[in-house]
Here is the input.
Amino acid sequence: MSSCLQHVISVTFREIRECLKLDPDHKECFPFYKKVKKLVKQMDSALQNKANSNWEDCITKAKAMLKTEPSVWNYVFTGKPLSWPH
Here is the structure.
């Protein structure tokens, strides 16, 4: 499930980038791009820390994801399980 979610997020991220290539000053697209970029970085870091059994940093990054985006299920679904103590 996690790899499926990562794929959906990466496709979304690419599509937002394409939108910005066509219209770099798009008022709705640019702030959304910055937020998604931040979330992707946080999620990648959390998953990398999980893979390395670095639980404290994994939990920290997962909580940062939930703080950045507390309501979109994709990030909540990924961030909450990663933030549980191991």
Summary: The chain has a mean pLDDT of 78. The chain is about 80% helix and 0% strand.
